[in-house]
Amino acid sequence: MQHVQNFINGQWQTSDSTEYWDIPNPATGENIARVPFSTPAEIDAAAQAALAAYPAWRRTPPNDRAQYLYRYKTLLQDNAQEIGRIITTECGKTYAESVGELQRGIENVEVACGIPSLIQGYLSEDIASGIDEFMIRQPVGVVAAITPFNFPAMIPLWFLPYAIACGNTFILKPSERVPLTAVKLIDLLHATGLPQGVVQLVHGSKDTVNSILDHPTIRAISFVGSSAVAKHVYSRATANGKRAQCQGGAKNPVVVLPDADVEMTTKIVADSAFGCAGQRCLASSVAIAVGAAREMFGEAIIGAASNRQVGSGLDEGIQMGPVISAASKTRIEKLIALGQSQGAEILLDGRNQPIHGYEGGFFLRPTILQNVAPDSDLARTEIFGPVLNLVHAETVDDALQFVNRSAYGNMACIFTSSGAAARKFRYEVNAGNVGINVGVAAPMAFFPFSGWNESFFGDLHAQGQHAVEFYTQTKVVVERWPREWSRKF
Ligand code: NAD
Q1: CA–CA separation, 178 vs 205, rounded Å?
Q2: Considering the entire predicted model, what is its pTM?
């Protein structure tokens, strides 16, 4: 079984920790690796290495820093198949989903390669006679990112390329449930010849995260994970004087109007709700059918869900893999049972249906519920599994009211052929990522990933120009050069 190592100051290092976590392959339940919970001394070593590397890295011209990222993009692409297999083996999603998420990550590397222009400031000449004023962007220093299990490649790449392109040095603490993808990502980065200390990888869980949040050298924290942890990370980081951007959980609604294209809508909503086994922060988990959409959409989505091919993500033709862990599977099954006990009707039950040949895996099949009481635990809780709740609304206004009652605001989607209804929805909906006839409204790398409310704590989001602003501090210079001084020459 592989013992996962940290990467500090350009070296792979075995942790001194006596605490470990075993990593199962979610499709088989067999352990494939063991990850250490790094000690505070190891976090300190990572922070000191990053601090030592910072002055020279900061002075490396942005265009030269970008050259490492160009090489990195090529290496990621050349190794996409291997990375895809690693993601599927430790995270469970299908191979196509794994390679797809890597591609979305690579797009962030591409955007960060534009750092020479992205990092530019601006200048105003003659703010008073002979006086100019300009703003420049400088890096923040040592920064860290703490990432979740569900996108082991893409989410670290929402942060790492921008952080180092801006001249910061960086520490990654990936989810303890998917450390192997991070190891491969950092190994490839090392192969670009990046100077030692610019990037470190440390493994661990809650205590490791708290050591990072309390470390005085680390100036900024990027976080993605559940809302409760996002809130904790945001409070502790900011109380320690750090800047923080913390993306949290979600409960994403899709609204289906009677004029929607049923075939297209059903396919897209099924992919959104059951793709990645529902473990996407942009998974649809509540479908609100308006008026006459109820019958036609309800029947169609049950058909699409029951036809979904569930199995090991490395097998041909599989459309949905297992959930991440045995504990997650049990938690989701309990939530379905709780919903049932609180009055929900189960239209399609994905529990207790083992996959032949993978009896040890953490599989659930698509599940569809209706009549979930609006104020029940199930209606408010992020299930993070392949479970879709069907709701009926009389009008678009009723649907919007339902959507806007949610504590979250990661994504909301509408399916319609009416431009006016779509515009009303995007104008009034209380969510930061909006899909119109799109079921996973994931912003491209050159747009911010704009969660709102309990789905985000902070002000600057991941990706694109927001990332550059987060990873730089502005310096404003006011300069006086009296005209008469030029007469000396
Ligand atoms: P999680 O909150 O359990 O873990 C995220 C990270 O926090 C991990 O690195 C983990 O080690 C660390 N952590 C866990 N508990 C902690 C604690 N008590 N104190 C300090 N650190 C702690 O999340 P997860 O289960 O890995 O990921 C799934 C969650 O992430 C879902 O809620 C999903 O919606 C959310 N997510 C959000 C986005 C987004 O962009 N908003 C994207 C992906 C996932």
Answers
A1: 12
A2: 0.97
